[in-house]
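Entry 14. Two folds queued back to back today. First construct below, sequence then structure tokens.
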Amino acid sequence: MGSEMCIRDSRNPDLIMRGGDYTHNADTLRHFETFFAINSALEVDLTGSVGAEAANGRYIGAIGGQLDFNRAGLVSRHGRAIIALSSTAGKARHTKIVSKLSGPVTSPRADADTIVTEHGIAELRGRSLEERAEALIAIADPEHQAALRAAVDRDGLA
């Protein structure tokens, strides 16, 4: 179902169904005065780059509309682009806040706004790389925070 397709429900004329190329289109969504784009991720690196396709070298997701959806939140007048994820994954509790992504970048750090885990909120928009790293380390699982700080000290931020 493309953007040219519009299906109306005969029982509810207020319900309109459209394809993802319309519903996730930044040009469509930016017209909302306040649009909150909430996406998830597999990993977020310490600069704010988001990976939603692969983790620990294993391809899990697919290319989708995250980037367009995220950018729509950024261009909406009072909008936000939020990435919500748990701080760890699996029984081994691998950190999802990482020093470097293990796969491709789905949403670049230039588009980073707000990252949320169960440990808090990291506001990244307008922050330096060093400030971003500190904000992201603060919302990482406490068991992984020292290792993330050590990685910054050892490798810096790219």
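Second construct, same run, same settings:
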Amino acid sequence: MKYEGLIIRPPSEAYSLLLQVTTGCSHNKCTFCPTYRAKKFRIKSREEILEDLAEASHYRRVRRVFLCDGDALIIPQPRLLDILASIRRSLPGIERVGSYANAKSILRKTPEDLRDLKAAGLKMVYLGVETGSAALLEKIRKGVGVEQMVDAGRRIKDAGILLSVTVLLGIGGRTHSIEHATETAKILTRIDPDFTGALTVMVVPGTPLYEDQQAGRFQLPDTFGFLTELGTMIAQSQFTDCFFTSNHASNYLPIRARLPQEKEDTVRMIQEVIRRGDRGLLRPESLRAL
């Protein structure tokens, strides 16, 4: 496989074939994200993609494919359908194709487009929601507002595609911590995703967020402030059926819970950890990572 630059994927795609169909991110303006800043966005040629699929056809037991890099759904519909068809031809045992997407690229697709992508094999989409606060969405330069984010998430759900959203603990800093937690609970309720992953913000040199931190314009919540946000989001969200996790390497307290079934027990456990204030119950700083 001929990868260009750093390749990332969601934790749940750990055993998937990583097929790079674009390089970089079509948006690439989020203040907290360093991932694609060194890459120029482009859509790979059909020949490049087919060459990688020809190699992958010799691999054993490929059941899932994840489309890299940051936003494969920005690819024009005919080309994206062709890529999905090529995957089926090259990997006849494939069960699921997944992709990152941003709200703007989803909203460029019609509901019929999304249903066609589902029929062609796209079964999972990962959407970075980050926060439900309108002010914070603008501040971190997500490029969309709350209503657009909700619309994008619901379009994926309505097409029958599994939706996994990401939210960022701490992205409101200390000043807007509670606003961030409560507004994020509201947007999660409105989108009602199949999966939610809560990550914890780690400020990376070279990002605008780092510059804000260095200038004193941004200050992260303390360790138990992150947990307060997590508990608030879970307590105030109303899900139909969502698998909620905070088991990313950035998180202090790993959580895996089916909501709403395990909601009360999960919130009670988080509150008890906060009450005890025992850092020995948390992931050590030395083991936290992006």
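Quick look at the second one. Residues 11-283 form a domain with the TIM Barrel fold (CATH 3.20.20.70). Residues 177-191 form the longest helix (15 residues).
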